[in-house]
Amino acid sequence: MKVGSLVWGLARYLENHIFAEISLSPAPSNSKEVQHLLENFRRLGNLEFFKVARNRSGLSTYGSKIWLIYNPSENSTLLKPRLISHNNQLPSSFPHVDRLREKQSEISKRLSGLIALPRYSYIEEDREYLHGDTEIPFNHRLTREGLKYDHRYSILASRATHQFLELEIEAEEQIDPNDLRKNLRHNFQKFHKFDSVSITTSPETLGQWMRDKDYRPIANKVPITKFKGFYD
User: Residue 63 and residue 24: Cα distance in Å, rounded?
Assistant: First the structure.
């Protein structure tokens, strides 16, 4: 296959993908928390790429950013070379664009509503929660600046089958979810809160990520084999 054809095919392949950059607090403290995040993000759709920032201070392993790429189709990923067919050919056909756009919108909407995720250390021994007998509400308070949002939103509780806590806003309310997120105060021992969620559908986003100093690989990378779908 000619290089030009491969580049064209990959550009077309990524045309309807969803690219998300998420800042969270606190950052994952160990590999179990990273795996917990990965498993839950996988539940939202066909997750092709997952990367957690590295802490550059050396005081801890992980940083507070996550990068995600979702495939709106159900095809196997082409982002890992071993999954390209044996003759290095890209698929000869792609799902209908209307279906891709519908799925793209569905995944983007779910990502845009994420507020928090219970930490692995908080739920790992909670049998009632893990068996589906109880839910975990997002206990929080608003900052003084955030009081303008009081009584204008709700946050759905976390369940074992869907562990993310999600934002619900009435159609008539004009609320910037990222502005609300930054004005929520929570218990760091119980939750990873998503402080900002940025979603695009432009493949050019990859180039922007690679220019981000937090994205660049540094020493002591976790082996790829440790997490399925974890790429450095």
Answer: 9
DSSP, collapsed to helix, strand or coil, labels residue 16 as coil
Whether 225 shows a pLDDT value over 50: the answer reads: no
The span from the CA of 57 to the CA of 64, in Å, is 12
Closest CA to 212 of 34, 64, 42: 64
Name the most confidently modeled range: 119-128, 166-175, 203-212. 119-128
Total-model pTM: 0.81
Q: How far apart are CA 49 and CA 32, in angstroms?
A: 18
Express each pLDDT in 144-170 by its tens digit. 999 999 999 999 999 999 999 999 998
Query: Could you tell me the sign of the dihedral formed by the alpha carbons of 191, 196, 202, 208, in that order?
Result: negative
Domain boundaries, the chain: 3-226
Nearest residue to 94 (alpha-carbon basis) of 17, 3, 205: 17
User: Average pLDDT, stretch 42-59?
Assistant: 84
**What is the DSSP annotation of 33-63?**
HHHHHHHHHHTTSEEEEEEEEEPTTSSSSEE
> Between the CA of residue 108 and those of 68, 70, 92, 111, what are the distances in Å?
11, 9, 27, 5
Cβ contacts of 82-89, under 8 Å, gap ≥ 24: 88/1, 88/6, 89/1
As a whole number of angstroms, the distance between CA 116 and CA 191 comes to 6
What whole-number percentage of the chain has pLDDT above 70? 75
CA–CA dist 207, 205 (Å, integer): 5
